[in-house]
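// run 5 | inverse folding | seed 20
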């Protein structure tokens, strides 16, 4: 049964959802009590913004205009709810993007809530290239790429004497599809062209890049890079097990 089908009240004879003084009802984004017995305190719009942040990979004004507005109006409350879950809210007002990541401080042995996406060497090489496209895009312009051109760029990582071009293309395609799932690559109105999400600047910062380059040197271009991404809602990624605080 949905809330639209419910007839419930605090007093006999009253209908649910209640009519508000301005003529709106309990299903709007401007009230906190959304159903009988609702113990939540966030506004309806803020709850939906919170859900999107937890689903991941991010919330943006371009793709979630109403949720972005709700987050801006009620950011302290949303931030507090996320902190209750050992999650940190990251907001970039210039790019109008928000996402969550695991709290990582020495003082607290915090559980890992957001899934961790392990990166292969090819994943990381592709991320570095896509991030460079973001940095070189003109101010106010989007970074648009195609899979073929990205694969051509990554050809420098193909081992000398490699006689399996199909295998290399398969690895590139696997990384491409993974970044699409994580929301790093978003389809555009032009077939075969994808926008590089500005969130990449935030989730893959200078410190992580330095660590990855050091790992490159150690691995020599093979294996899993020891620099995973925290990705909310990352389909198919490996969640870090942590039952050290479970009751």
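// decoded
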């Amino acid at each position: 049964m949905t809330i639209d089908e419910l007839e419930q009240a605090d007093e006999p004879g009253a209908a649910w959802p209640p009519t508000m003084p301005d003529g709106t009802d309990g299903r709007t984004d401007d009230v906190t009590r959304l159903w009988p017995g609702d113990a939540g305190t966030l506004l309806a719009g803020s709850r939906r913004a919170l859900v999107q942040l937890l689903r991941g990979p991010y919330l943006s004004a371009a793709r979630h205009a109403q949720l972005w507005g709700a987050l801006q109006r009620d950011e302290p409350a949303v931030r507090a709810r996320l902190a209750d879950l050992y999650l940190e809210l990251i907001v970039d007002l210039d790019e109008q993007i928000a996402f969550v990541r695991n709290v990582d401080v020495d003082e607290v042995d915090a559980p890992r809530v957001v899934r961790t996406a392990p990166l292969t060497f090819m994943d990381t090489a592709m991320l570095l290239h896509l991030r460079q496209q973001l940095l070189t895009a003109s101010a106010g312009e989007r970074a648009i790429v195609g899979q073929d051109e990205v694969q051509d760029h990554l050809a420098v990582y193909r081992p000398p004497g490699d006689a399996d071009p199909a295998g290399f293309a398969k690895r590139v395609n696997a990384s491409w599809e993974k970044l699409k799932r994580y929301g790093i690559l978003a389809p555009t109105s032009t077939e075969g062209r994808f926008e590089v999400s500005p969130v990449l600047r935030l989730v893959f910062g200078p410190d992580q890049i330095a660590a990855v380059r050091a790992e490159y040197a150690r691995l020599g271009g093979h294996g899993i890079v020891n620099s995973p991404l925290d990705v909310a809602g990352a389909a198919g990624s490996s969640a870090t097990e942590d039952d050290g605080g479970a009751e």
